[in-house]
Amino acid sequence: MSLDDHPTVLAVRARPRSDTPHPAVSAAELKQIALQHGADDAGLVEIDRPALDDQRALIRQVYGDTRALLSFVVGMNREPVRSPVRSVANQEFHATYDAVNETARDIVRALSARQIPACNSVAAFPMEVQLPGRAWMVAHKPVAVAAGLGRIGVHRNVIHPRLGSFVLLGTVLLGVDADAYDQPIDYNPCLHCNLCVAACPVTAIKPDGAFDFMTCYTHNYREFLGNFGDWIGELAEANNAADYRRRVSDGETRSMWQSLSFKPGYKAAYCVAVCPAGEHVIAPFLDDSKDFTERVVRPLRDKPETLYVLSGSDAERDAPRRFPHKALQRVAPSLRPSSIPSYFMLLRLGFQRGRAKALSARYHFRFTGEPHTDMTVHIDHQRLVIEPGHTGDADVSVRADGPIWLQIVNRELAWRDALSRGIVHVTGPLDLVHAFSSCFPAMAELS
Predict the structure, then answer these.
(1) Whether residues 28 and 165 fall in one domain
(2) Tens digits of residue pLDDT in 211-232
């Protein structure tokens, strides 16, 4: 049978078809579909919105025909999130993430039934963790902000104007235009009350609004990829069962079993738990802020628990001062740069302001090979600035082959050996190189 005679081909060709482009879809209809299938609020953004300039290429890797994005939120139950018992709080997160993904899938099915092409993107895990660089393809936060679903608070979460911080985000990629789009809301629901600062057990959120990503990642995501890599390393290096138990406590082993069996759990979502922002959330805080603090914030601050920190980090110094009743466990770094661009990205994420208190210096880096990269890193007044090219007068210049430098910062090649062999060239004081590396304890110390 030829293709032209196949029953499927005959049936399709017998139907009337239109070659005209799909008309713009009603924004009101799209939002109503989202609400009917589990969303608590929804907004729309066109793919060409300037706010998505740094996201567009990755979005189109997920769905190349994306023309618009339907952003939506699903609310969480507040009291479980506020519970000091992590199993209770984490179950609420896991259940809501499942609801977000089911909602996105149901929206796509409903749109497909209306001949509207769409693709649901994944909320939270799983992610493209095997790829170098960024592990998530669709960044839901900037999409939600552009769609008018909230603003980023001091704690770096989206705060919805009504539901506050107790929301999780989803995004559906649309292959059609909408007839109207939303704009960011004209105020930030964040109250700048700094309760998230007070509750953060590892001091990742700073009183001046700064955020230490690496400290948050090291502790809060301990049960995720970081813990697994660290655990595998200890397992591989252990000589026998007794040596393994010296390296890894029974509690840590049970915790790993739990995360592998029943989904990994956040060590602390306290910044979300204590946030009083949002019209549906704020009343108890307005009625009696002191009582709110005693009931919601203090149980989390007073809870005995283990805090996971990097050696040499600001958290290692600051957390015991604020929370002397919480145990401290120093853990190995788990994020490793796999390329020169990811190296500079991790510099931004891992910068420790406290370690840079006495440092003021400008560094020029030149990495040969593919890609050839010139970058300037300037540390001054506990601020980090990274710029392409060589700007200003350098206090220190470093030249190396890119892969060689990655071996050094990933602790695969000793710094001193690289210097003595002449495969890394440094102009300027070596003590400034050491001072530089001490600001980034997630990478090898250059001393």
Answers:
(1) yes
(2) 999 999 999 988 887 677 788 8
Tokens of 192: 């700048």
191: amino acid identity, one letter = L
Which residues in the chain land under pLDDT 50? none
Q: CA-CA distances (angstroms) from residue 78 to 5, 128, 200, 270, 298?
A: 60, 30, 18, 12, 16
Are 281 and 166 in contact by the 8 Å Cβ rule? The answer is yes
Between 314-322 and 213-220, two packed helices, what is the crossing angle to 10 degrees? Answer: 70
Shared domain check, 208 and 159: no
Residue 416 neighbours by CB distance under 10 Å:
12
d(CA 38, CA 206): 35
Rounded to whole angstroms, the Cα distance separating 330 from 346 reads 20
Over residues 301-347, the pLDDT tens digits come to 999 999 999 999 999 999 999 999 999 999 888 888 989 999 999 99
Residues 380-385: contacts with CB within 8 Å, 24+ apart? 382/353, 382/354, 382/356, 382/357, 383/353, 384/347, 384/348, 384/351, 384/356, 384/439
Domain span at 234: 195-331
The pLDDT value given to residue 80: 98
Whole-structure pTM value:
0.91
